C-alpha cells in the first residue's frame, strides 16, 4: 500500500533569492552550451500552454541551479541535465498543481526539487552499478571517476534540500522522507544482489521505495503547492505511487526485451548486476526455475568480487526466450496493467477535467513503451 506521506494544501508562494528563471542563463548557461530539453514527449502536455511554459521554466531553473562559478564543478553537475529526459516527475508536479491554483513559482520550485533528487540518485546509481553509459552518453563515473560522480550527485541533492526549505516545512519533510525511501530501496536491492532465492516481497519493497516513492511525492507536491484539498492531494499521491510501479516494471521489461539503441544503454544490465526483477523472480519460482538459475549462476561474481563472465547477446537471448516460454514476461505485463488500473481508480476520484485525461494518457504511454517480443 502507499506510504502515509504527509500532504496538505497551502504551500505558500515564496520569492526566490538568487534563483530567477532564465535571467542568468543568457549570460551563464547559454555560454556553456547547456541545451534546454524543452521538447516534452509525454502525451497531452501540449494541450496545456501553461504547463508547456512551466516545463521550459523548470528546465531553465534546473540549469540555473546546477551551474556555479567554478566551471569544473558545473561541467559535472550539469552533465546529465544536458542529456535531456522526459521530465515525468516535474510534469506530474505541474499537472497536480492545476487541480488547484494556476502554476506559480512554488510549483516550478517543487518540480525542480524532485528532478534534482532524481538526477542526483542517477549519479549515485551509476557508481553503485558500475555503469558505463546513461541516456546514450558515457556515465559521469566513466567520464570522470566514482568520487566525482558521488560528489556531483551530493551537490544536486543538496540543492533539492535548499529548494525544499523554501517551500516550507511540510514540503521539506516530504522530500527528506522520500530521499530516505530511495536509500531504503537501494539498500534492499544491494543486499539481495545475485540472490536466486529473492522473492516478490523483496522486489515490491525495492520498487515501492526506490521508484514509486519519488513519483508519488511529485504528484503529492503538485497538489500541495496548488492548494488542493487533502483528499485531492492524497488521490494524486496514490495515482503517482501506482504509476511509479508501472514505470519501474516497464523499465525492468525494457532491460530484457529492448536494444541499446532503444533504451540508451546496453540491455541486460540488471542481470549483470544481479538485480533480479519481476519477470526473472517469477521465472525462478516457476517450473523452469532450475534451468534459469543455471543460466544466471555463471554471472555471479567470484569471492573476491570480480565478475566471472559477462552476459552477451547469446546469453541474453537464451534468458529472454526462457522467460517468455515460462510466461514471466506476460506475468510482469499483467502486474503492470493491474497497477495501471489502480492508478485509473485513483484518477476517477479526482475532478473530471482535461488534466485528469492527461494523467490517464501518461499512464498508458509509460506502459506502451515496452516492445513485447513476438
What low-confidence regions span 5 or more consecutive residues with pLDDT below 50? 1-39
Number of strands: 2
- Proportion of residues in extended strands: under 5%
Question: What proportion of the residues is helical, as a percent range?
Answer: 55-70%
CATH architecture: Orthogonal Bundle
CATH fold-level assignment: Farnesyl Diphosphate Synthase
Strand order of the largest sheet: 1-2
Q: How does the major sheet shape up?
A: 2 strands, antiparallel
Distance between the termini: 34 Å
**In CATH, what is the class?**
Mainly Alpha
Please compute the radius of gyration using only Cα atoms: 20 Å
- Number of helical segments with 4 or more residues: 18
Helix-strand pattern, N to C? HHHHHHEEHHHHHHHHHHHH
Number of domains: 1
Average pLDDT confidence is 84
Can you describe this structure?
The protein is mainly alpha-helical. It has one domain: Farnesyl Diphosphate Synthase, CATH 1.10.600. Helix content is 66%, strand content 1%. It contains 18 helices and 2 strands. It has a two-stranded antiparallel ribbon with strand order 1-2. Strand 1 and strand 2 form a beta hairpin. The longest helix has 28 residues, at 230-257. The protein is globular and about 55 Å long. Mean pLDDT is 84; it is low at 1-39.
Task: Please supply descriptive tags for the structure shown above.
18 helices, two-stranded antiparallel ribbon, disordered N terminus, 374 residues, Farnesyl Diphosphate Synthase, mainly alpha, globular
